[in-house]
Design brief:
The complex is a heterodimer of chains A (about 230) and B (about 750).
Chain A: H1 8-24, H2 47-65, H3 74-80, H4 95-100, H5 103-124, H6 128-133, H7 136-166, H8 176-190, H9 195-220
Helix pairs in contact in A: 2-7, 2-9, 5-7, 5-8, 5-9
Chain B: H1 2-11, E1 34-39, E2 45-51, E3 61-68, E4 74-76, E5 87-91, E6 100-108, E7 113-115, E8 119-122, E9 155-160, E10 167-172, E11 182-189, E12 195-197, E13 208-211, E14 221-230, E15 233-236, E16 240-243, E17 254-262, E18 268-275, E19 289-297, E20 304-309, E21 313-316, E22 324-333, E23 345-348, H2 355-382, H3 385-390, H4 404-409, H5 412-418, H6 428-455, H7 457-462, H8 480-488, H9 492-513, H10 520-535, H11 539-543, H12 554-575, H13 582-604, H14 608-621, E24 638-643, E25 649-653, E26 675-681, E27 685-690, H15 697-706, H16 713-724, H17 729-732
Antiparallel strand pairs in B: 1-2, 2-5, 3-4, 3-6, 6-7, 6-8, 9-10, 10-13, 11-12, 11-14, 14-15, 14-16, 17-18, 18-21, 19-20, 19-22, 22-23, 24-25, 26-27
Classes of the chains: A mainly alpha (about 230), B alpha+beta (about 750).
Organism (chain A): Sphenodon punctatus (Tuatara)
Family (chain A): Belongs to the somatotropin/prolactin family.
Protein name (chain A): Prolactin
C-alpha cells in the first residue's frame, strides 16, 4: 500500500487537521456501543493511544511467551538458540543503535520481525514434530500467541499508516512487500528448529519488538510516560 | 649522566659531610642499592638479591644487614656467595623466629656509603611484594613449604546488568595450591567462533569482569568461562550462558523524600517521592521500571509493602499520628530482578489534637457531673430514705405474733391468745380431749402406719423425722384448724362424727367413680382412713392439737392432710350433697392429689397442678371448722390478697380496726383478717366469711398466699412442724416479723 504523495503544505495541513480531529473530535454519546471496523462512529485514536495499545499488546505477548511452564531452564535453551531463523536479520542490539537509526528503519524492523513469525506460528500446531514435545497446554498457548502476533502486526501497521499520514515518518519504507517476502523466506527455516528453540527464539524476538516499540514511541512523542 | 650523578650525590648528602660534596664526574659515593627480591627457593632457606646503585666510579662493597623487628641488634649476612652475585643466602639457623626481619643493604666506597631502603621479610609467610600493579599475587610461605597443586575449578557466581547497557560478572576464587593463581575470563558471542578475553578486570571489583557498552550486545547469548591458572596447571569452569536482557537488576531508587500534606478534607497524608536510579534510562523508554515501597513505624516489626507500579510518587493515608516512620523503596525492570532497598528515610508524624475527641470527653464529663449533682440533690430532698433504700437497716429482733403493744399493756391473756395459744394453761376441755387423744393414738398408729407405708413409701425417705413424743403426732392434729375447732366448740364432735359417715359414703362413691388412676390409692385409703376415723370415735379428736402435740414427722402430714381434706371434703360434700358425683370426686381427687402432690413435690419438685389444687384445697380448708355451720354465719366482705394460677384466691376479710387483738397469727408486716370460704360456687367463686379467732387459722391462710413460692424440703418440714404445733408456733418462730421467711408460713401441704 502506498499512500498518495502530496505536496508538503497539503500534507502538513491534512496532518494538522487529522491531529485536531484526533485530539478534539471525539464524538460524544458513543460510549457503550461496539465499534467495528469501518464504522465512522468510532472515535479516532491518537498516535500516542495507538502506540500505547500496541505496546501493551506486545507486552502481553512477551509475557505469554516467557511463562515458565512454556520454557525449560535457561542454560539448556541457550545452547540451542543459535539457530533462530531471525538471527540473520540485522537488528539493533543496543540502545544507542535503536536510538540512532532512522525511525522508518526501526518501524520496518518491527514489521519484519512480526512478519517473520507469522507463518511459523500458524504452522506450529500443524506440525507433527512439535506435538511430541509439548503438552496440550502449550499448544493452546501457541495458538493464542499466533493470534496475538497477527493482531500486533495489524496494530503496528495501523500505527505506521497513521504516522505516515501525519508525516511523522516518511513514506519511503522500502515497501512493505519486501518485508513479507523476506519473512516468508526466513520462515521456511523455522521448520528446522526444535520446539524449545522455537519458543526461545520467539521469546527473544517478542522482547525485541517490545523494546523497539517503546523506543520508537518515545522518540516520536517524548514526555508522558517516557 | 651529570644529572644522574647529581641526583646520586644529592641523595647521598645525608651520608656525606658537607665539605665532601664535590662534583667529580667519575668519583662519588655509591648510589643507593635496592633489594630486588627475597625468595625462598627451598625449605627453610631464604635468599635475597639486591641491585646495586651506581658505584660512583670507585670500588664499592656491599653489606647486607638484617635485624629483627623490635630488637636493636643488627646482624650481617652469613653467606654472600651461595645464591649468586649481589645476593645473600640465609640459613634457617640465622632466621629462626616468627617475626619480621628488616633487611638492608649498604653500599660503601671510598667516597661514602649509602643504605638501601629496608626490606621487610616475614619469617612466617609472605614477603612484601614490591609491585602491586598486576593481579599477580606473590605468595611466599617461608616456613611451611609444600609442593604446588593445580588450582581447583572456578565457578561463576552471577552476572548482572544495572541498566541493560553494560554488565558485569563475578566468580568465586578457588582454593589454590598455595601458588599464585591467575584468572582469565573468556567469552564467546553467539554465532561467533572466536573467544575474547574480558576487557576489564577491575572496575567491578576483585574477581570480576566488566563489560562496557561497546562489548555488550543485547539479545545475544554470551558463553562465559573462567580459567584459573597457576604454576602447576590450570582449570576451566563450566560454561555459563548469559543473555543480558534477562539479567537486569537496577540500582535502588534515589532521593526518597517524605512529606506531610493536608488533604482537601483536612486529613493528613504522607506524600512519598523518589526518582529512578541515575543509570537507568527510563526517559527513552529503554527501561521500564516498576517500584515497590515499604513502610513501618520505627518500633514496629513488620514492614508494610506496597506495590506502586511505574509511578514515582505515592500517597499514604492511615498513618498513626505521633509515630516515627521508616520508608524504603526499590525497583525492578520488567523481566529482571528487584534491586536492593534504598537507604532509609524517616519522618516523624505530629500528634494530632482532634478537637472532636476533646469535645466529646468534655461533654461526657459535664453530663455525668450534672447527673450526679441532680441525684444528690434529689436524695437530699427526699431525706435519708435513699440511704435506707440502699442499705436496709438491720432489723431488731421481734417475735412473731408477739405484739409489743400487748406486752406493754400487760394483757397477757390476749397476748398469748394472739400467739395462738389455746389458753394457757390449757382448758379442761382440751385436756379431756387430749386424754382421749392419747388413748386412741396407739391403736390408730397401728392402723395408720400400714396405710401410710402402703400409700406413701417415698415419704419416709424424704421425711426427716422430727422429734416424736410418746404420743406420736401422727394422726394428731396436723391441721390446727381442726384442733382448734375441736377445742372451742364441743358441739362439733357429734356433728363431725356424723359427717364422716356421710363423707365416707360420699367419698367412697367418689372414689369409685373417680376416673383417675393416679389417685386410686389415696382414694381407697381415704375411705379406709375415714372408716378408721369412724371407728375411733375420737376421730375428730385426732384432729385436735394442742401445744403438747409434738412436731410430727412428715408422714403424719399426709395423714393429717387427708384427714383435713377428708373433713373438708365431708364438709363440702355436705354442702353440695345434691351435686353430681363429679364434684365430690373432684374434691376428693383434689385432696388426694394434694396429698399425693405433696409427695411428688417433695420428690420431684413443684408441680403447679398440685400446688394450685393445694391452694384451692387450702382455701377450702380455711373455713374448715366453719363448714358445718354454713348457713349460720352471715356473709362478710373480704379482701383479695392474692390470686393464684388456677384462680385460687388468697383472701382476707376486710380489715377492721382493732382487729389486731383478735388476730391469732399476724402475718408479717401486715394486719390482715382471715376469711373463711363458706362455699364454692361454680368452682371458681369463693363465698367467704370472716373467720372467728381460732388459733391456727392463719396457718392455713398463709399457705395459699405463698403457695406460688418454692419450698425447700427442710423448710417444708419446719412448716410441718409449725403446722402441727400451731399453738406453739410462737416458740418456733425465731425471727421477728422482718425476718419472717414467707416460706415458713407454708404449711406442709406444700
Amino acid at each position: 500500500r502506498r499512500s498518495a504523495s502530496l505536496s508538503p503544505s497539503v500534507s502538513a495541513g491534512s496532518a494538522c487537521l487529522l491531529l485536531w480531529l484526533c485530539l478534539l473530535g471525539k464524538p460524544p454519546g458513543l460510549g457503550g456501543s461496539l465499534c467495528t471496523r469501518g464504522d465512522s462512529g468510532c472515535p479516532p485514536l491518537s498516535v500516542a493511544d495507538l502506540f500505547d495499545r500496541v505496546i501493551q499488546h506486545s507486552d502481553r505477548l512477551h509475557r505469554l511467551s516467557a511463562k515458565k511452564y512454556f520454557l525449560p531452564s535457561g542454560n539448556e535453551l541457550a545452547k540451542s538458540a543459535r539457530r533462530c531463523h531471525t538471527s540473520r536479520m540485522l537488528t539493533p542490539n543496543g540502545k544507542e543503535y535503536a536510538q540512532t537509526i532512522p525511525r522508518e528503519e526501526l518501524t520496518y524492523v518491527i514489521l519484519r520481525l512480526l512478519q517473520a513469525w507469522k507463518e511459523p506460528l500458524s504452522h506450529f500446531d500443524q506440525s507433527t514434530v512439535h506435538h511430541q514435545d509439548l503438552s496440550d497446554d502449550s499448544l493452546s498457548k501457541a495458538k493464542e500467541i499466533s493470534n496475538m502476533v497477527h493482531e500486533l502486526k495489524t496494530g503496528v501497521e495501523k500505527v505506521t499508516e497513521k504516522m505516515q499520514s501525519m508525516g511523522i515518518i516518511s513514506n519511503s519504507l522500502n515497501g512493505m512487500g519486501s518485508s513479507e517476502a523476506a519473512g516468508l523466506s526466513i520462515s521456511n527455516e523455522a521448520n528446522l528448529m526444535s520446539n524449545y528453540e522455537f519458543i526461545h527464539c520467539f521469546r527473544r524476538d517478542s522482547n525485541k519488538v517490545q523494546s523497539y516499540l517503546k523506543i520508537l514511541k518515545c522518540r516520536i512523542m517524548p514526555g508522558n510516560s517516557c | 649522566m651529570k644529572r644522574k650523578s647529581l641526583q646520586q650525590s644529592i641523595s647521598s648528602i645525608t651520608y656525606v659531610p658537607h665539605h665532601l660534596i664535590l662534583f667529580h664526574p667519575w668519583q662519588s659515593p655509591p648510589g643507593k642499592p635496592k633489594i630486588v627480591r627475597c625468595h625462598s627457593p627451598e625449605k627453610e632457606m631464604l635468599a635475597c638479591w639486591w641491585k646495586p646503585g651506581s658505584d660512583g666510579g670507585l670500588l664499592t662493597s656491599y653489606t647486607l644487614l638484617y635485624s629483627k623487628e623490635g630488637e636493636g641488634q643488627t646482624y650481617e649476612c652469613p653467606d654472600y656467595t651461595s645464591a649468586g652475585p649481589s645476593s645473600c643466602y640465609f640459613n634457617k639457623k640465622h632466621i629462626n623466629s616468627w617475626t619480621t626481619y628488616i633487611i638492608t643493604v649498604k653500599a660503601i666506597n671510598e667516597m661514602g656509603s649509602s643504605i638501601s631502603e629496608p626490606h621487610y621479610v616475614e619469617a612466617a609467610s609472605i614477603g612484601k611484594p614490591e609491585k602491586k600493579k598486576s593481579n599477580k599475587v606473590v605468595m611466599l610461605n617461608f616456613i611451611s613449604f609444600s609442593p604446588g597443586q593445580p588450582p581447583g575449578k572456578p565457578e561463576l557466581i552471577k552476572c548482572r546488568s544495572p541498566e541493560k547497557e553494560t554488565f558485569s560478572c563475578w566468580w568465586k576464587p578457588v582454593s589454590d595450591g598455595g601458588l599464585p593463581t591467575n584468572y582469565t575470563l573468556f567469552y564467546n558471542n553467539e554465532g561467533e567462533e572466536s573467544f575474547y578475553e574480558c576487557p576489564d578486570y577491575t572496575t567491578a571489583g576483585p574477581n570480576s569482569c566488566y563489560f562496557d557498552k561497546k562489548h555488550t550486545s543485547l539479545w545475544t547469548i554470551y558463553n562465559i568461562t573462567i580459567k584459573a591458572t597457576n604454576e602447576m596447571g590450570s582449570n576451566i569452569s563450566e560454561p555459563h550462558y548469559v543473555d543480558v536482557t534477562y539479567i537486569v537488576q537496577p540500582n535502588p531508587p534515589v532521593n526518597l523524600s517524605l512529606a506531610l500534606n493536608k488533604h482537601t478534607d483536612g486529613k493528613l497524608y504522607l506524600l512519598m517521592n523518589w526518582s529512578s536510579p541515575p543509570l537507568a534510562d527510563v526517559r527513552s523508554g529503554w527501561l521500564t521500571l516498576e517500584y515497590e515501597l515499604r513502610l513501618k513505624p520505627e518500633e514496629g516489626e513488620e514492614w508494610e509493602t506496597i506495590f506502586v507500579g511505574q509511578r514515582t510518587k505515592y500517597k499514604v493515608f492511615s498513618l498513626i499520628p505521633g509515630e516515627k516512620y521508616i520508608a524504603q523503596v526499590r525497583c525492578k525492570s520488567d523481566h529482571g530482578e528487584w534491586s536492593k532497598w534504598s537507604s532509609e528515610s524517616y519522618i516523624h508524624l505530629p500528634k494530632e489534637f482532634r478537637l472532636k475527641d476533646m469535645m466529646v470527653w468534655v461533654f461526657v464529663a459535664v453530663l455525668s457531673s450534672v447527673i450526679c449533682l441532680i441525684m444528690i440533690w434529689m436524695m437530699g430532698l427526699k431525706g435519708i430514705n435513699m440511704v435506707a433504700c440502699i442499705l436496709p437497716p438491720v432489723p431488731g429482733p421481734k417475735i412473731k405474733g408477739l405484739d409489743a403493744h400487748l406486752l406493754e399493756a400487760g394483757k397477757n391473756e390476749e397476748l398469748l391468745s394472739a400467739l395462738g395459744c389455746q389458753g394457757f394453761p390449757p382448758t379442761s376441755d382440751c385436756e379431756d380431749l387430749l386424754v382421749e387423744f392419747l388413748e386412741i393414738d396407739d391403736s390408730e398408729d397401728q392402723q395408720l402406719m400400714p396405710n401410710h407405708e402402703k400409700g406413701h413409701p417415698n415419704k419416709n425417705l424424704k421425711s426427716g423425722n422430727k422429734e416424736t413424743d410418746s404420743d406420736s403426732g401422727r394422726g394428731s392434729c396436723d391441721s390446727p384448724s381442726l384442733l382448734l375447732e375441736k377445742c372451742k366448740e364441743s358441739r362439733i364432735p357429734p356433728a363431725e362424727f356424723q359427717t364422716p359417715d356421710f363423707s365416707e359414703t360420699q367419698v367412697k362413691a367418689a372414689g369409685k367413680s373417680s376416673q383417675e388412676t393416679q389417685n386410686r390409692d389415696p382414694e381407697l385409703k381415704l375411705p379406709d382412713f375415714n372408716s378408721d376415723g369412724v371407728k375411733s370415735s375420737t376421730w375428730p379428736g385426732t384432729q385436735l392439737a394442742s401445744s403438747q402435740i409434738p412436731k410430727g414427722s412428715y408422714h403424719n402430714i399426709v395423714e393429717v392432710c387427708k384427714v383435713a381434706f377428708s373433713a373438708m371434703n365431708v364438709n363440702v360434700s355436705a354442702i353440695r350433697m345434691g351435686n353430681e358425683e363429679k364434684h365430690p370426686s373432684k374434691y376428693s381427687k383434689n385432696i388426694e392429689t394434694i396429698c399425693e402432690g405433696e409427695m411428688t413435690q417433695r420428690r420431684k419438685g413443684e408441680s403447679f397442678h398440685s400446688k394450685a389444687k393445694a391452694d384451692q384445697a387450702l382455701q377450702w380448708l380455711l373455713p374448715n371448722e366453719k363448714s358445718p355451720f354454713l348457713s349460720d354465719k352471715p356473709m362478710d366482705y373480704v379482701e383479695i390478697h392474692k390470686v393464684n394460677q388456677n384462680g385460687a384466691l388468697a383472701v382476707l376479710p376486710k380489715q377492721k380496726e382493732n382487729s389486731d387483738k383478735t388476730e391469732i397469727y399476724p402475718i408479717p408486716g401486715t394486719t390482715k383478717e382471715y376469711a373463711k370460704v363458706t362455699r364454692v360456687v361454680d368452682n371458681n367463686v369463693l363465698v367467704l366469711m370472716p373467720e372467728s379467732r381460732v388459733q391456727g387459722m392463719p396457718v392455713f391462710q398463709e399457705p395459699p398466699k405463698e403457695s406460688a413460692q418454692s419450698l425447700h424440703q427442710s423448710q417444708a418440714e419446719k412448716n410441718m412442724s409449725y403446722c402441727l404445733t400451731a399453738p406453739s408456733e410462737f416458740r418456733l418462730q425465731t425471727g421477728g416479723l422482718e425476718y419472717m421467711d414467707p416460706n415458713s408460713f407454708m404449711c406442709s401441704f406444700k
